[in-house]
Amino acid sequence: MDFEEHESSYYGLYYIYGKKYEGESFQIVNNIDLLDNEPLEEGGFPVVLYVNNTNSDQNEVFATLEDFVLISREHF
Predict the structure, then answer these.
(1) What is d(CA 42, CA 22) in angstroms, rounded to the nearest whole number?
(2) What is the mean predicted confidence (pLDDT) over 37-45?
(3) Is the pLDDT of residue 63 over 70?
(4) Which residue among 15, 19, 28, 54 is least enclosed by CB atoms within 10 Å?
């Protein structure tokens, strides 16, 4: 996977593979909201991997990995 570097006022510097709103994508961000200086996700994680628009079988893979913690799951 080749992640592309992006920057935003909300995430700061982050990396994305795929197109967030057009199919499956993976987004790696620092766990800090730059607008209010609070964590994006609770749990004390320094980095968050968002997996978007993937099928449920792949979600199960991430949930069973030792180095990952599944914070939430949304079905659309």
Answers:
(1) 27
(2) 91
(3) no
(4) 19
